[in-house]
Write a structure and sequence with these properties.
By secondary structure, this protein is mainly alpha-helical. It is built from 6 helices and 2 strands, in the order ααααααββ. Strands 1-2 form a two-stranded antiparallel ribbon.
Length: about 140
């Protein structure tokens, strides 16, 4: 049995060093054996956010907006145990993706993402982590 906590830490290290493909590959390679590892699932969700949502370029004509929506759904699936935490990767990615979609003139897709959020679970106060402010 792999050390799921350690794999989660390694995924985070790879993500923070900009090695997205390696981080995603490692995380998904071990996810089947670590389904209950919320640390690995969370690390993988933040990696999907950084590598697929944050880096999405709405000005790129070849960028597929449906890939962005799929990335947010993937994050939701990975983080279903804790969708509306103080600093929520799902909420953060949803807002970022919606902004990208509006910039790409994909208003219906952006509205669909925003409508998928549980408004009762959202906080009016943004949270911060390591000096960065996130919607929550």
């Amino acid at each position: 049995m792999p050390d799921c906590k350690e794999i989660g830490r390694r995924v985070t290290e790879l993500r923070k060093s900009g090695r997205c493909d390696e981080a995603l590959r490692l995380g998904y390679e071990h996810l089947g054996n670590c389904q209950e590892s919320w640390g690995l699932r969370g690390s993988l969700a933040w990696t999907v956010r950084d590598c697929r949502v944050k880096k999405f370029d709405p000005k790129n004509q070849n960028a597929n907006p449906h890939d962005l929506v799929a990335a947010v759904k993937e994050i939701r699936s990975l983080n279903e145990f804790n969708l509306y935490d103080e600093v929520s990767v799902f909420v953060t990615a949803s807002f970022e993706a919606a902004n990208h979609l509006v910039e790409a003139q994909q208003h219906e897709l952006a509205l669909g993402l925003m409508e998928s959020l549980d408004k009762q679970s959202l906080s009016r106060t943004p949270n911060s982590f390591e000096g960065k402010v996130y919607p929550s």
